[in-house]
TrEMBL record:
GO terms for molecular function: metal ion binding; N-acetylglucosamine-6-phosphate deacetylase activity. PANTHER family: N-ACETYLGLUCOSAMINE-6-PHOSPHATE DEACETYLASE. Substrate binds at residues 138, 217-218, 225, 249, 305-307. Keywords: Carbohydrate metabolism, Hydrolase, Metal-binding. This is N-acetylglucosamine-6-phosphate deacetylase. It comes from Orlajensenia flava.
């Protein structure tokens, strides 16, 4: 394919009248102006008509969409993925909420099977069961377990090489050992749903954790005498901070602080549950009932936020228009930064040699066309 007449926006900057061409699943050439005409033969040509063109979005943390979740069957997973792909997410890590160990193993196996079929599925994320009882969020506290080595090995085996991320409260007994075990197995370890203080978070990063699960949520905030895990993550250049920027989880002013304090190390995520793209109503998140009203998901009968109904193009729009984040930095947070978290050097930029994943957006940053591996998704 060949796309021309775009306003390119990626971590390299903004380029007017941009074009790119593909050879199979890879970007083969880029340029500006009318140079694209020399490579037109054999290409399916799209005129971007001055729209924003970004790399495909990479979501490190999402639980579902379209009325379905990632915890059960492949059909539901595909339905949820279709919603997010229509909004620009070309690569996804599928997140699982806390569940009994046998159920988690079954879900990990199902995601492993799907990932082998579909290269756009990057693998799985265990957001439980190794969480603090004091910061459960939308996880069933009765299903939490301690991060013992036997559980670590069981989950790694069930995922069969496709476990990409695990969230751990490192202060739990054997928590730091589990951080190191997972990191040694090339799993990205995230500190989250945690009562860890500043020192414990630093210890976890020194043992191999490289991510902070939805920063500011399900953890202590920044206090002038108790800096907490967010400050520890901001200070450590090895660590990336996930951020749910939906206007509910984090105030736009706090998002500005995070982007300024950790440039290039904020990854925007959706943390979306089944209601994303499906509207208000009653849903399930793992074993818990969730009510969605006005696009805000809460555990039924409580004020506890239960994931989001966010899509990645909406996160970009909120970042730029409400939080005032520079568009280049905002797009990097959906593309190059998560690619680096996953150590995928072929994703996140519109350059020759990179995967042919791209999103064409209108002036309001709503996805209009989406391509992945050189093929149209929308």
């Amino acid at each position: 394919m060949l796309v021309h007449g775009a306003r390119k926006l990626d971590a390299d900057g903004i380029v007017e009248d941009f074009w790119f061409a593909t050879d199979g699943a890879v970007i083969s050439a880029t340029g500006t102006g009318d140079d694209w005409r020399a490579t037109i033969d054999g290409h399916d040509v799209t005129d971007a008509a001055g729209g924003w063109l970004t790399p495909g979005f990479i979501d490190l943390h999402a639980h579902g969409g379209g009325g379905a979740d990632f915890d059960h069957d492949a059909e539901g997973m595909r339905r949820a993925l279709a919603v997010h792909r229509s909004h620009g997410t070309t690569r996804s890590v599928l997140s699982l909420v806390t569940a009994p160990m046998d159920a988690l193993c079954a879900s990990l196996g199902a995601i492993a099977d799907l990932a082998r079929e579909d290269p756009l599925v990057l693998g799985s994320h265990l957001e439980g069961p190794f969480l603090s009882p004091s910061y459960t969020g939308a996880h069933d506290p009765t299903l939490l377990v301690m991060p013992r080595s036997e559980y670590v090995n069981t989950l790694l085996a069930a995922a069969d090489g496709t476990l990409r991320q695990v969230t751990i409260a490192p202060e739990l007994p054997e928590g730091l050992d589990a951080v190191e075990e997972f990191a040694t197995a090339s799993v990205v370890v995230a500190v989250g749903h945690t009562a860890a203080d500043y020192r414990m978070a630093r210890a976890a990063f020194d043992r191999g954790a490289r991510l902070l699960t939805h920063a500011f949520n399900a953890m202590a905030g920044i206090h002038h005498r108790a800096p907490g895990p967010v400050t520890a993550a901001i200070e450590d250049e090895r660590v990336t901070l996930e951020l749910v920027l939906d206007g509910v989880h984090v105030h736009p002013a706090v998002a500005r602080i995070a982007f300024a304090a950790a440039p290039g190390r904020v990854a925007l995520i959706t943390d979306a549950m089944a209601a994303a793209g499906a509207g208000d109503g009653d849903y399930r998140l793992g074993s818990l009932d969730v009510t969605v009203r006005g696009g805000i998901a809460r555990i039924a009968g409580t004020d506890t936020i239960a994931g989001s109904t966010l899509t990645m193009d909406a996160a970009l729009r909120i970042a730029v228009e409400q939080a005032g984040i520079d568009p280049v930095a905002a797009v990097a947070a959906l593309t190059l930064t998560p690619a680096r978290v996953l150590q995928r050097a072929d994703l996140g930029l519109l350059r020759p040699g990179f995967a042919a994943d791209a999103v064409l957006l209108d002036v309001g940053f709503a996805a209009q066309r989406v391509w992945a591996n050189g093929r149209p998704l929308r």
